[in-house]
Amino acid sequence: MRLTRRDFLLATVATALTPARASDKAVSIVLAPSNLGLSPLGSSQQGTWRAPQTLLQAGLAQALDADEVISLDRPTYQFEAQPGTRIRNGVSIRAFSLELSTKVADILRRGRFPVVIGGDCSVLLGGLYGSRLGGGRGLVHVDGHDDFYHPGNYDSARRLGAVAGMDLALASGRGEDLLTAWPQVGKPLAEDADIIQLGQRDGRLSGTGITQWTVQRALKDGIEATARAVLARLESRGLDKVWLHVDLDVLDDAVMPAVDSPGSPGFDYAQLSSLLRALCASGCVAGADFAIYDPERDPHVRYAKPLVRCIADAIRTT
């Protein structure tokens, strides 16, 4: 069939207006070796800070065809409370988040796709803030927990808060200004109506405006149907540049026990990569972070290569 000049022009315009998919963009990996957001295990730190280098050594850059790898310095973990905050390592997390956000925003401005490898879930704040600086809006929070602790539902005077258990609360503006109010974008990093929490097994999100899909519901409905429903919600809110946060404890503990809070039910690798691939292929995702893998809980490094494959299958949709 011969293509008329009008048909050609219409096709060209349609292509130009279609959002670029993650697979269409050059990938930049940002290594964010932080364990600041986790509570210690007795007198020992947790080992999530080792994850970026472990996954890189397992072939992540090659699997993502990433021609740019940016490494941040590991921040110093402090066991004692820092001045002026009831959040563990709160001052250090803000400084690390500012540094990470600068890298993410620069990657986005250059038309690339940032993949942040944590570390613990506190890296969400720097990634999401960088996304906002780069013109993005909204958050898809894929996590086996809701990470919604804040001073309204726990006694901050009695214990230090750990950001790995409150990152979604902080992202939605609940908690100390130290980690909820940010230069140029203010507070919150994401409005409740622009947040989707996907994968929690139970939680404290009722009564908020956050859209929720439990892992039980996602498994019952099926991955394809869940992805369509999530994308429909993003479209209804006009969200075409969201940040994607993935806590790897959303994987079932039968296939991923090397996290600080493993649980079941959860996704297997194929289910998680299929779900994330559908989101990334839509063009609605501006960038992503992956967090909470702990190589110290994986002494034989059994889980690094399956994780690399899962991440690559999610991001590289072609």
Q: Any overview of this molecule?
A:
The chain is of the alpha/beta class. The chain is 33% helix and 13% strand. The protein has 10 helices and 8 strands. The protein has helices spanning 5-17, 51-57, 60-63, 90-109, 123-133, 167-171, 215-221, 223-236, 269-281, 304-315, and strands spanning 27-32, 68-71, 113-118, 139-142, 195-198, 211-213, 242-247, 285-291. Strand 4, helix 6 and strand 5 (195-198) form a beta-alpha-beta unit. The protein is globular, with a radius of gyration of 19 Å. The two termini are 28 Å apart. The model is unreliable at 1-19 (pLDDT under 50).
Helix/strand layout:
Blueprint: H1 5-17, E1 27-32, H2 51-57, H3 60-63, E2 68-71, H4 90-109, E3 113-118, H5 123-133, E4 139-142, H6 167-171, E5 195-198, E6 211-213, H7 215-221, H8 223-236, E7 242-247, H9 269-281, E8 285-291, H10 304-315
Parallel strand pairs: 1-2, 1-3, 3-8, 4-5, 4-7, 5-6, 7-8
Helix pairs in contact: 4-5, 7-8, 8-9, 9-10
